[in-house]
């Protein structure tokens, strides 16, 4: 194995393990362990990029437009808003550029065969650990956690393990992550890889992952699960070459409907649906913050990283967590929001139908949390950005 191939393998493993490793602290402020390791790795990558011709594909240009639009709008806000938090803004922008650099680096260093195999393996592992947690809690009353000994967590805020709902206590398993929603994001990506990047389908693993997503109690898991299977049905039925499999697909759909019918009275599903109905809370809070903005800040935003400082200095209120689209509206205004949504639509339609589901899931993730400046920007978009030619090769069916 050459040095370049070894580096590509290390990069691929770290990238796809990133969402799990990032829960640990690095000992350096503002950097988690995964970010530190990737920063070191990208520094070494310069050796291989010295003679590499760098170029951008069309979807990368769309993402660049988003980035430069947001930075430009933040610069305008910095010039017009008194007491603009320039330090916080620069820190957020640098971190955002760091994740964009990781995505661009995947073009040159991602081992696609290894990536597909690894995502499948990790997804099976995290789903298995989720069921082990469920069995340990409901069978033996033990709250089982899986952590690497000797490493400190990157946060002191861990999602609630048990929450009350009606007359029941709901245990919320989170596998190797810190909260069920992050499990849902990764498992959903794994489900898509099993469904859309396998030429010869075996539905046992997709069904196992689907049941695990329901058991996670995550609202995002329920939404993603329905979207993925609906899109997969549409995708299969829209292909003339798949007509011979319609009967089998019909069986899978009927199985899913029967499965959901028996789960409709399940307290776990009821809890997930109740969280979905309460999901407007984050939307409402975004609307509340927007109501404080004047004409200028509604159009151009308060600037990336300046939201906490802006709302406290001007209105004496604490800026709390809102969903990703809410952040875009507050930080970059209606102009930034329009550009962001437009570019995502362009990326979606410039992607082959087989891989559009990843773009759509990334879009949906913005309704739950800010993923634009996060590792999920990378793990959702590497597939539509860099696997279009890969799925046209015969070797992908062997992975």
TrEMBL record:
<keyword id="KW-0472">Membrane</keyword>
<feature type="transmembrane region" description="Helical">
    <location>
        <begin position="62"/>
        <end position="87"/>
    </location>
</feature>
<feature type="transmembrane region" description="Helical">
    <location>
        <begin position="292"/>
        <end position="312"/>
    </location>
</feature>
<protein>
    <recommendedName>
        <fullName>Polysaccharide polymerase</fullName>
    </recommendedName>
</protein>
<feature type="transmembrane region" description="Helical">
    <location>
        <begin position="207"/>
        <end position="234"/>
    </location>
</feature>
<feature type="transmembrane region" description="Helical">
    <location>
        <begin position="7"/>
        <end position="25"/>
    </location>
</feature>
<feature type="transmembrane region" description="Helical">
    <location>
        <begin position="31"/>
        <end position="50"/>
    </location>
</feature>
<keyword id="KW-0812">Transmembrane</keyword>
<feature type="transmembrane region" description="Helical">
    <location>
        <begin position="93"/>
        <end position="110"/>
    </location>
</feature>
<keyword id="KW-1133">Transmembrane helix</keyword>
<feature type="transmembrane region" description="Helical">
    <location>
        <begin position="370"/>
        <end position="391"/>
    </location>
</feature>
<feature type="transmembrane region" description="Helical">
    <location>
        <begin position="246"/>
        <end position="263"/>
    </location>
</feature>
<feature type="transmembrane region" description="Helical">
    <location>
        <begin position="183"/>
        <end position="200"/>
    </location>
</feature>
<feature type="transmembrane region" description="Helical">
    <location>
        <begin position="324"/>
        <end position="349"/>
    </location>
</feature>
<feature type="transmembrane region" description="Helical">
    <location>
        <begin position="122"/>
        <end position="140"/>
    </location>
</feature>
């Amino acid at each position: 194995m050459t040095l370049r191939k070894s580096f590509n393998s290390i990069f691929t493993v770290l990238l796809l393990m990133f969402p799990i490793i990032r829960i640990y602290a690095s000992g350096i402020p503002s950097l988690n362990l995964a970010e530190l390791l990737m920063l070191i790795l990208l520094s070494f990558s310069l050796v291989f990029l010295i003679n590499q011709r760098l170029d951008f594909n069309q979807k990368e240009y769309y993402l660049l437009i988003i980035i430069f639009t947001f930075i430009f709008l933040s610069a305008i806000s910095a010039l017009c808003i008194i007491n603009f938090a320039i330090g916080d803004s620069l820190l957020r922008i640098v971190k955002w550029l760091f994740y964009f650099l990781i995505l661009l680096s995947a073009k040159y260093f991602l081992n696609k065969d290894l990536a597909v195999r690894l995502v499948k393996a990790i997804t099976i592992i995290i789903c298995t650990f989720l069921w082990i947690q469920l069995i340990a809690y409901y069978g033996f009353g033990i709250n089982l956690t899986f952590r690497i000994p000797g490493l400190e967590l990157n946060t002191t805020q861990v999602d609630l393990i048990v929450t009350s709902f009606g007359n029941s206590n709901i245990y919320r398993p989170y596998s190797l992550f810190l909260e069920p929603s992050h499990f849902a994001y990764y498992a959903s990506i794994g489900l898509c890889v099993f469904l859309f990047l396998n030429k010869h389908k075996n539905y046992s693993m997709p069904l196992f992952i689907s049941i695990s997503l329901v058991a996670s109690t995550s609202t995002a898991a329920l939404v993603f699960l329905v979207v993925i299977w609906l899109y997969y049905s549409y995708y299969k039925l829209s292909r003339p070459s798949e007509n011979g499999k319609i009967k089998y697909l019909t069986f899978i759909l009927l199985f899913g409907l029967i499965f959901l019918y028996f789960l409709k009275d399940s307290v776990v599903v009821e809890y997930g649906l109740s969280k979905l109905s309460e999901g407007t809370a984050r939307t409402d809070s975004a609307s509340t913050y927007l109501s404080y903005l004047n004409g200028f800040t509604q159009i151009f935003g308060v600037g990336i990283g300046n939201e906490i400082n802006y709302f406290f200095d001007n209105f004496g209120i604490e800026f709390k967590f809102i969903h990703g689209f809410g952040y875009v509206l507050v930080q970059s205004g209606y102009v930034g929001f329009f550009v962001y949504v437009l570019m995502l639509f362009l990326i979606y339609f410039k992607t082959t139908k087989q891989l559009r589901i990843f773009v759509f899931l990334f879009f949906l993730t913005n309704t739950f949390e800010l993923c634009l400046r996060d590792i999920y920007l990378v793990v959702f978009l590497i597939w539509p950005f860099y696997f279009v030619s890969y799925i046209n090769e015969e070797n992908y069916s062997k992975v």
